[in-house]
């Protein structure tokens, strides 16, 4: 059971709610109790007019009850309600002023003669109604107040006033009926109040549970979201690192394939060049022996052409050996500018007159290099530029200047360098072609117009002297 059926106090597992209910009930009804006390004082005092009209002979007794006992006690209770202690003594205080007011009216009923007596009965009814409807006294205190008033009446009516039996029975019926009705009303009102409190309490508990569940869910969601965010960050980082690693791996594989290809071609070219050199050495040697055995006047032009052709072929094998890095260059300190001027003089004689050559040879610095290889660089680059011009018409620009690096750049350490810049007004090349221009035997020319060795030879010589290709423009 939720309540004790007689005291209406919470019982069993709900017993802990009783102090909370009393505090809730007190705080919810305090303002109404104060107002009820003031209204009761007003009406209890205003009915002094009734005393004056109906019972003028004994009005002083009635006024003493009203103005010297009941109303001062009610005013004291009203003032005491503003004290913190009133929360503990509320029921006894309200019980006492209701009992005093009820007993005072009963004295008036006993002292008054009919028909004035019946007018004062209404005062008893008002006290009974006020106890539960406005003052909200607990059921036990209210019941005690009802029956105390009835008991007081029985004592006075029987042993003091010697009330006639018919009047006593009539009054008892009146009082007891009013008490029973008020008790039922008070019982029902307090039960409903306790049910409302219990419902509010259970609803608050459920709200707390829902709030705790929501907090727990929020915490789990935040924790899970944080974990997912961290996992997503790690995954993105791993993906970025993997993509970077894959790109680096592809680049390394590409460079490795290119080096392996170059090494294979270089090994093949070196072997062929050595064998071809042996054959050329025999041709040149036997031709020179034949020319020594022949009278100088009888030597033919064909013998000289054989020697010349063999020397050209030997130069070609020297280029192949340079590419394959199997031949050591004859390096010595030289000025590049005179070598370039000599190479350009030979170049002007072999290129079409429709090509204009502009030069800016500013550097006078020396380098340790093989003049033949520098000569080969100039001839190959310029020839390649001339061949790139449409109809062999355009301008070839050649610049040689000094460069000083304050900081490392590409594979170059800080220090002085010589920079060779060759540009032309040709149509340029696509990015796809530019990636392959230094590959051996790669060419965009027809089968009978180029071997694809020119730029690869230049690349090999530049790398051999620890130089770098700075840029290749794409038109």
Q: How would you describe what is shown here?
A:
By secondary structure, the chain is mainly alpha-helical. Helices cover 68% and strands 8% of the residues. The protein has 12 helices and 5 strands. It has helices at 18-46, 48-54, 59-80, 86-111, 116-133, 139-160, 165-293, 301-324, 336-350, 371-388, 431-434, 454-464, and strands spanning 332-335, 355-361, 366-369, 394-405, 415-424. Strands 2-4-5 form a 3-stranded mixed β-sheet, covered by helices on one side. A two-stranded antiparallel ribbon has the order 1-3. Helix 4 packs antiparallel against helix 5 (116-133). The radius of gyration is 63 Å and the shape is rod-shaped. The model has no long low-confidence stretch (mean pLDDT 79).
Proportion in β-strands: 5-15%
Average pLDDT taken over every residue: 79
Approximately how much helix is present in the residues? 55-70%
First-last Cα distance: 98 Å
SSE ordering: HHHHHHHHEHEEHEEHH
Strand order of the largest sheet: 2-4-5
**Model regions low in confidence, pLDDT < 50 over at least 5 residues:** none
Key terms:
single chain; 475 residues; mainly alpha; 3-stranded mixed sheet; two-stranded antiparallel ribbon; rod-shaped
Write the layout of secondary structure elements.
Layout: H1 18-46, H2 48-54, H3 59-80, H4 86-111, H5 116-133, H6 139-160, H7 165-293, H8 301-324, E1 332-335, H9 336-350, E2 355-361, E3 366-369, H10 371-388, E4 394-405, E5 415-424, H11 431-434, H12 454-464
Parallel strand pairs: 2-4
Antiparallel strand pairs: 1-3, 4-5
